[in-house]
Amino acid sequence: MFELATLDTELAAIEVIREVLVHQRRLRGSGCTGRVCLRCLRHHRNAIAEAMTQGRTIEFLLPAFPTKSPNPAKVLGPLPDLAEELALRFLESLCERIAEVYPPGARVLICSDGRVFNDLIGVSDENVTRYAREINRMIDRIGATRLGQFTLDDVYPGADHAQLRARLTAGRGPSTDELRAEVRRGGDLVHMYRGITRFMLEDLSVPGYTGSRAALQRHCRELAYGVIARSRAWDELLAELFPDTVRLSIHPQPCSTRKIGLLLAETPDAWLTPWHSVAVDTGDGRFTLMKRADAEAAGARLVTAHGRPSHFALPGAPATVPTQATAPTQATAPTQATAPALAHAPTLAPTTGAARHDR
């Protein structure tokens, strides 16, 4: 077992959490200050130090990579592309940097929640399966040894997709009435509810929709309660299965809470994620995330790789595929958040089920 002196453990824990927090996804007005928020550093230091004291690998858990948006104005299609690949490369490189500070290193378990609520957001179970399989192939193809994937399918082997969702919510998560009451009381949930409603309105405004916008808005408001309820049930289940992990999130988080919001790619705002956008080569050796329609409006050209559409390149940018990720950054003064992403990995062994990336 790897051992550190007490002082070395304290210093190493601080350095490790700094490596994570420098890529922190922040809410505007959350209370976080500085390049690395010292209050967040103090809040999460103990969990890292505990793993180090025991000489074990630091285990991060990240609900993410659910499925591609069903709106063709935002993405290239139903399968992961360079946007996801760059995010995976970044996570692997983050674990590598942690290993330079703490030799046992770190692992990230990606807990894909596409199966949790895909029926609510208009994505077929078949596309969720295809997306998860491609993420696993991508992890293997880029040679990532510190990442793994865990899905709802791993929790209840043999159950059909409807049964999976029913078992997840049996005894977990709030009821719709409880959520309605919580929204009426105000607080953080109001912002999440409104954001998810806006997000779903955007994603479900697809070319095939023939109803009125008012009707779609009403539908999305109802669906938002279901998304929140199932997301909380998934969160509760993951806490049961992986009690000793350090929790990450693709959502911006308030200061000093139990989860660390983590940027997976360079983005112009605090909410955009790889599965709701495309990767765009800006021509300066960096990539940013944009909605497909915005990239096309900017005159970007489509680049293919591995036999299918990969990303866009702005005029003057080389039509090449990168082999490593650059450190993601977020605009210091993001525009009003358009909507939160709904997602919400070495392999970790859960209390029950089997974490794997071989589907």
From TrEMBL:
Residue ranges, compositional bias (Low complexity): 315-359
Pfam entry (one): DIT1_PvcA
Region (Disordered): 311-359
Family matches, as PANTHER family: SPORE WALL MATURATION PROTEIN DIT1 (PTHR37285:SF5)
Name of the protein: Pyoverdine biosynthesis protein PvcA
Source organism of the structure: Streptomyces graminofaciens
